[in-house]
Write the structure tokens for this entry.
Amino acid sequence: MHEATDAAGVSIPAEYADAWEDGFGVRGWKLDLPGRGADVIAATPYTGERIPTSVFVHDIVDHHLCGFALSGYTDEAGALIQLAERTGSDPVPDFVQIIDEDLLPGAFESGDWRELLPVSLVTAVEAAPGTRAGMAQLRAQWGDGVLRALWLAGFVATGWGRAAAARAAWERHGLAYAKRAATARALQRLFEQVDARVREQGWSRASGVFRVTPKAVGFRFEGPAAGREEWQPITD
């Protein structure tokens, strides 16, 4: 299934499983979009302590509606800057987690890592027998502190540079970019309702479509409760 866009907003398909067969095996929801990477983990309405909306809402509001893929380092850079601007949160811890888990060890999951480092360092990594060996050489030469700072600078500059494209993407959907925070809060309330419905019914699988319009957000079940709809107004 693919998203649909018209003058009244955008429709985004989603799937639920009580245990995804994706190597992670967790309960939750995933957006059903082309190019969804294997690294995208199912999400629940849980918000954590720092941010008032869940990862799933972040995927809709800061990734998809901004025109960013759910996977890839440069798309994550753009989305995390959007999240920071929307919520006032600090994006640095999330960037550092990606750097420490993926980039410093050379365990690159996508080729766009090259856009985050100075050209001379990219050349050095590519001259090595492999990316892990290349990064190991750079760490021995420069130290983790310098490399972490360079990766971080690359993430921030890349994410900042994609802000105009994010605004343009929202406007192409006919949505108000200035209402991103209110839209996200409405989606969070809606997502909590939808997830509660699935758990109450004890469904192992479910699917449906989230709808984002200028004035409200909605969800229509297409699985066990086909035809049932939930709506939440977007309030400032």
